[in-house]
Inverse folding.
């Protein structure tokens, strides 16, 4: 989203300790690709099929993960079967069942619900199919994941808070958060954000930043718009909003403009539309992610696992704070 989204998320932090406890031990004996899905390639080598179920393909972030993983898989003689849960945990559970029936070589998930995905992962564990998570981690007890590859969402949340502090300056004021608590990556973003805001407020007699509300933005534009409308009505003196991804931030931007107000808005992701909004002055800044790297590193972890090489339980990729000055130099923007 993590645009909603988070395989989790990287730096030794309390949130990460919670994550490893939530998913249980990730150690698995390297498993060879299922013979049922080995097919001779044009060059005579064999290839396996990797089953990938993403949170949604309506968000460009997850499409980039799927595309980059597919390209990297080709380099190693594998193919990727991509499906989308479209925010529906039950649909994603059925997709995992289908992967198991098809005896895929490995399963990669960006969970629609970090806890509800647990039983499906356990089914794959019982079938001897290794499971990897990308961007969004599993938080279900006993579900074994070989490796989680993701943005450092906790660190990114901290960067988002620093951007909000920079945007508001010494005046401070009341702000709100548009969250998406169904997925682990967004939980970590909000956690990091709140911690830095709390540190900023420590010992201040004036200029504090007060979080007065936290509403679900769903990680999508329409829900972000409605949530922001509700926030603006309930808190007319609001000066800023942190949204956990670009779609919800862009929805909030539309609500702010409709209300004729001027608020500081910080998003998360670095999607093209979000970057354009930063250049146009509609979003102050984004901690940007690198979904292409997530896709590539996930496939490389799979290949290493099948080769019997050690794979880290987590591989977290740091964000980079993207402001208007960066957008003005960005050749991909209008």
């Amino acid at each position: 989203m993590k645009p909603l989204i988070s395989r989790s998320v990287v730096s030794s932090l309390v949130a990460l300790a919670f994550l490893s406890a939530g998913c249980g031990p990730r150690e698995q004996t390297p498993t060879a690709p299922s013979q049922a899905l080995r097919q001779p390639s044009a060059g005579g080598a064999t290839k396996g099929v990797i089953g990938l179920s993403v949170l949604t393909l309506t968000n460009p972030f997850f499409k980039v993960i799927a595309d980059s993983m597919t390209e990297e898989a080709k380099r190693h003689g594998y193919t990727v079967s991509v499906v989308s849960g479209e925010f529906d945990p039950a649909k994603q559970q059925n997709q995992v069942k289908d992967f198991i029936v098809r005896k895929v070589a490995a399963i990669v998930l960006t969970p629609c619900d970090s806890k509800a995905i647990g039983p499906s992962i356990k089914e794959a564990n019982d079938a001897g199919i290794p499971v990897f998570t990308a961007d969004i981690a599993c938080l279900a007890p006993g579900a074994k994941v070989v490796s989680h590859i993701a943005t450092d969402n906790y660190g990114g949340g901290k960067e988002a808070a620093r951007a909000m502090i920079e945007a508001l300056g010494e005046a401070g004021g009341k702000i709100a958060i548009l969250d998406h608590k169904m997925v682990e990556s967004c939980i970590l973003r909000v956690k990091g954000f709140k911690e830095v805001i709390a540190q900023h407020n420590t010992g201040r007699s004036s200029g504090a930043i007060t979080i007065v509300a936290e509403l679900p933005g769903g990680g999508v534009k329409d829900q972000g718009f409605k949530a922001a409308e509700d926030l603006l009505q309930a808190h007319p003196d609001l000066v800023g909003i942190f949204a956990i991804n670009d779609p919800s931030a862009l929805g909030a931007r539309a609500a702010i403009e409709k209300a004729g107000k001027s608020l500081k808005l910080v998003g998360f992701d670095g999607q093209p539309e979000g970057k354009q909004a930063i250049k146009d002055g509609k979003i102050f800044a984004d901690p940007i992610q690198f979904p292409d790297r997530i896709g590539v590193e996930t496939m490389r972890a799979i290949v290493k696992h099948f080769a019997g090489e050690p794979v880290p339980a987590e591989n977290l990729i740091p964000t980079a704070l993207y402001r208007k000055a960066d957008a003005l130099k960005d050749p991909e923007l209008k």
Observations:
- The first strand starts at residue 39 and ends at 40.
- The domain at 14-151+290-317 is CATH 3.40.50.2300 (Rossmann fold).
